[in-house]
Amino acid sequence: MKLKMILAALVVLSLSSSGAFAQAGTPITSIPSWEVASEFNDSANPSGVWSYCTKLTTFATSCSPLSAPYAEMYDPTDIVGWTDPTGSGATIAHNVHPVPFTTSNPYPITVPAHALAMSPGAGGQYAVLRFKAPAKGSYKISGQFYVLDATNFGPGVYWNTTDVEIVKNSTTSVFSSTTDYLFGLKWTSFTSKTVVMNTGDTLDFQVGYGSNGNNYFDTDGLNAVIEKIK
After folding, report:
1. pTM for the complete prediction?
2. 190, 197, 193: which is closest to 138 by C-alpha?
3. CATH number of 33-228: 2.60.120, 2.60.40, 2.40.50, 1.10.40?
């Protein structure tokens, strides 16, 4: 018994000296962070640091609100969000369920649990998820755009091709890439991108209709975490 007590005391002493236990009176701080999918709001736009809008070009200064409520035609209570009131088709929606959901339309897609689905407009309008910096500082961005719609009618017909970007203040490209399901480009990642922002600066996560010039089957998902590191 005495040996067990001595060994336990040594473990506690070791953890304490290594910093595993916080010293009394030492504040534990957390890094402010935001996550695009879990914080998506299908009942208010804007919502906190987020807003949902559409613009005509990569660096357009005007971003018109996606102000019309959206409900997927075949699954109106399962995939909901916001769409362009002009009818362009630019839409940002999400799976409301805590499990993956497969749509019941003629060309079904499976949306992961609580995941976002971003679709560009028929005339090249971007679907834009906008982050507005709540304070001055350095922000780290990590995540991925990925193909949700795997419908593929082959070359010269229709399949998922999108151009995807992250743009600061509508002027500066932070990240730019493409998806192309036919040629195996099913996802594109951005890892630990650091951006210095002033209060009120914006970051646009946006999806356009890509190289084939139409928005058929161009629904992409987005995972992204933003952390204020300084």
Report:
1. 0.85
2. 197
3. 2.60.120
